[in-house]
Amino acid sequence: METDEDGRTVTYTVVSADRAGSGGAVLWKVATGVLLLVCIALAVALGVVVAGDVKPCGAGMAAVTVVEGPPGVFDDLTAAEIKAARDYLLGVTPLGIKPIGEATFYDNYIYVVELHLPPKAEALSYLDSNGPRPERQALVTVYGGGRTQPVVEQYVVGPLPNPTRHTAHTPAGRKNPIPWHSRNPGGIERSLMNEAMSQATRQMDDILAESFDGFRHNDCGELCLLPLDSVPRGFRSGERMTWQRFHRGVEGFFLHPLPCAIELNHTDMDHTRWQVIQVEYNNQYFPSVADFVQRYNDGSVEKVRVPAPTGDAALYSSSRRHGSPAHPSEPLRGPELIEPDGRRYKVTGRHIEYMGWSFDWRLATTSGPHLFDVRMNGERILYELAMKEIATWYSGSDPVMTSKFVDGGLPVGGNFELARGIDCPTTATFFDTVHMMDKAGPVLYKNSVCVFELNTGIPLRRHYESNYYDGHSFYGGLVDNALVLRTIQTVGNYDLLYDFIFHQNGVLEVKATLNGYVRVTYYHPNQAPYGYPAWGGSMANLHQHFFNYKVDLDVGGTVNRFETVDITVDNVTLPFRPDVRHFLTRLERSQKTREAEATVQYDFTKPKYYNFYSDNHKNRFDVHRGYRIQLNGISKNLLPKDGATAVNGAAWMDYQVAVTRRKDSEPSSSSIFNQNDLYDPVVNFQSFIDDNENIVDEDLVAWVTLAAHHVPHSEDFPTTATAGNQLQFFIRPFHFYDEDPSIASPNAVWIGRGPGSSQNYVDRYGTPEVSTCEPKHIPMNYDGRWHYA
Ligand SMILES: *[C@@H]1O[C@H](CO)[C@@H](O)[C@H](O)[C@H]1NC(C)=O
Ligand SMILES: *[C@@H]1O[C@H](CO)[C@@H](O)[C@H](O)[C@H]1NC(C)=O
Q: Which residue numbers delimit the Copper amine oxidase catalytic domain (predicted)?
């Protein structure tokens, strides 16, 4: 063994020993053996020293992820609460609701059970003024396929865990009743759709097999074609017609589209009347399967042959390693986080405390991560900060690429298990979540949310003060340690990362990151305006991602104002040089009084800050204590907002920020029913604005939209990477604190030298510099499966 220049141990293999003369060989072997023994002895001795001196790092603050006793006000329903709500409602005979396992398409059954939040006033009275604890309630969505006029119903069931009553949920901020055609196809409908598809495609299976290298849709064994859905299901309100393109069922099937798609009309209430109304094959359209088959057989169809990729060529859609790495010859591990003094955040159930910050979180089954009661140094800044909707608008003349996804409505969306060490650092604390959607009972999703403290690798603040003579007069700095709450939502092909990042200077960063497979179609030259050709004859089409967040700021209480601080240009003369005109920028505070004025459509020529404050809260300089929203990831929806487009169902995407009066009856900018009627949606966000209410000294909500265009490129294969695909907004103090609150951190370092002294004086405020503990190794232990709870 030797040590190279960088101090790494290098092992040399003696290859010549056996080829040397016999006596020499014995000598060599003995010498090598002795040396080896010495090496082992040294290593053992070193090991003893290490084990004797270095203790395992402490655990730090408590992380109790599951607490005994009643759940917190904002906690998602427990498995027991979900079961109680389900069983109660199944027991209300007049409602005629059947367990999902026994229900058909023509019965009434429970689709989702999730938390029904208490009214804000009740929650605040409990949190702030010793009011009664709000009752725990469930919001239950029922598919009423068995009603004379089929309809979607919602009931509020309470009080949990022993419910005694249910009331129909029909909030004012949306369409009531919920039209039957607005529902997502649940598993029951989907199996009927699959049946109809199978029946229809049976006659064309041989053609599929001939065209696609033996792959067929029915009785397919190992060589299966999988139909992939697109939405919306039609181009007018009430239509329910779904285009499905065949993909080859291999690893990464999302990237294996084939030039054949089918449109199924499942509008009819009677599923036996569902039928295929169009077939697309090699960019030719046919009004029925029979017509297609006949024309294929009589030779009037332009045929296509797509061989199945084999060997390395099939790996393009796989996450398994291929290619030659630009790496050291042996794989080495990358840097990892350690917590030398253990956890510096405290977890009590869904309540988290970190460096002055505190908040509660939940993971809503039908929309995503929500934070509640976010406070800094005990002062509430946000009542709610929640992901409310995500959308992806595709482009292309191919029927599946007219897709407009509004994913809150997709039952396949889910926050699944996170991998320790990859999705979250090894040091993270993981949480399980429980959901009941389109299932007989609550399902446990292991490790689906994580929280961790991060060394972001950048100083939060630093300054080197030069003495302009021989060096520094002082240096001051603080690393940006921040707490991150993360969950990742897999929506079919995409994996969307949601982060909430709490910095020590009172800044809350909200981030959405794109990852996963791109959505592709089969390349045909007429698709050239919408993307680039790629692997396996596919093309990934141009699309735009949108994320809508509800930001219920309570800055100095619930009575708030919203202003923009506008930066305008002035043309003035100045007293010290009255003979010339001076052009400069100036501030204009512009308070907004009505909802219609409080929408932001970003204009480069009119830069503004978006600030929220309370009229009677001022800082030491008599300035309103505010929190502002800063947008770092915006792009404009280019499609016109009229009946012909789907934008009605996602009207929020027209505004980077829209400020409205907060109402319990307007809990969300969207609903799980918007996807299936984007033209006349159940929740039309525009109506929140159009009543044009007063927003002065009211409880306000900012609806924030992050967005980005994605022009997919060959490096999106196999999957889109996070680098460059992160969209953020920040909720930042604006005169809220008299100075940077991180100045109080004992983790800061100040290095100065006395007058005329060359000695450095280093102040670490009691924080030790070196770590003397052994970080604990926590194995990854990935399961990946879902479990009934
Ligand atoms: C789809 O089905 C509905 C209900 O049966 C029918 O009214 C409509 O005409 C069908 N649409 C097409 C395009 O076939
Ligand atoms: C600036 O103001 C002066 C005086 O009113 C005016 O003559 C001049 O046109 C202005 N310049 C611009 C660029 O607006």
A: 336-743
pLDDT tens digits, residue range 251-265?
Answer: 999 999 999 999 999
**0.85 exceeded by the pTM?**
yes
Write the single-letter amino acid at 177: P
Q: 611 pairs with which residues across the strands? A: 563, 628
**Residue 771 — pLDDT band, cuts 50, 70, 90?**
confident
Q: Give the torsion through C-alpha atoms of 780, 784, 785, 789, to 10 deg.
A: 60
Contacts of 448 (CB under 8 A, 6+ apart): 363, 415, 416, 417, 418, 431, 432, 433, 487
Interatomic CA distance for residues 246 and 259, integer angstroms: 8
Ligand 1 atom nearest the C-alpha of 240 is 1
Cα 183 to Cα 105: distance, rounded to the nearest angstrom: 13
pLDDT band at 409; cut points 50, 70, 90 = low
- Closest residue to atom 10 of ligand 2, CA basis: 571
Complete domains list, the chain, with CATH: 2-53 (no CATH), 187-314 (3.10.450.40), 377-409+492-738 (2.70.98.20)
- Beta pairing partners, 230: none
Q: How far apart are CA 62 and CA 273, in angstroms?
A: 59
Q: Which residue, by CA, sits nearest to atom 13 of ligand 2?
A: 571
Q: How many CB atoms lie within 10 A of CB 455?
A: 14
Residues with CB under 6 A from ligand 1: 265, 267-268, 273, 277
Place of tokens 């169009």: 278
571 CA → ligand 2 middle, Å: 6
pLDDT confidence tier of residue 412, bands split at 50, 70 and 90? very low
Q: Is 93 in the pocket of ligand 2 (CB under 6 A)?
A: no
The letter for the amino acid at 143 is Y
Options 494, 517, 549, 610, the catalytic residue: 494
Is the CB of 571 inside a 6 Å radius of any atom of ligand 2?
Answer: yes
Residues 113-144 have pLDDT tens digits of: 999 999 999 999 999 999 999 999 999 999 99
Residue written as tokens 């730090």?
60
Confirm whether 407 is a catalytic residue.
yes
Per-residue pLDDT tens for 202-237?
Answer: 999 999 999 999 999 999 999 999 999 998 898 899
